[in-house]
Amino acid sequence: MGDIRVYSRDELALRPAVEGAKMWAIGLDRSMLTYFELEPDTTFPDHSHESEQITLVLEGELTFVFDGKSVTLKAGDAVAIPSNKIHSAHTGKRPCRAVDAWSPVRREFLFPAGRLG
Hints:
This protein has no helices and ten strands. A six-stranded antiparallel β-sheet has the order 1-2-3-10-5-8, with no helix packed on it. The protein has a four-stranded antiparallel β-sheet with strand order 4-9-6-7, with no helix packed on it. The radius of gyration is 14 Å and the shape is globular. The protein has a domain at about 30-105: Sandwich (Jelly Rolls). The chain is an all-beta fold. About 0% of the residues lie in helices and about 50% in strands. A hairpin with a 2-residue loop joins β6 and β7.
């Protein structure tokens, strides 16, 4: 069992993700949280991952495409994506801020920002 860890704002520095997106990530052994700031017209192309993903839009709009449908989330809206489900996401003409909860941890997101623990 690990220790409780507090992250200061300085430790949560944004770093590049895909083109037009910056993020930070923190994680425990079995779950993690990511924060994204997305520029207008940013795209996460079709992909899937073992981790379940829950995305909450904080500001702006974020459109998810899955199962042949397109759903635009606004501030306060959320989507839950099961493991290995193919999906994509993109912003429109405005910037967007969003958080994601993940389980299991996507370790590739943790370095160099958030260490496990």
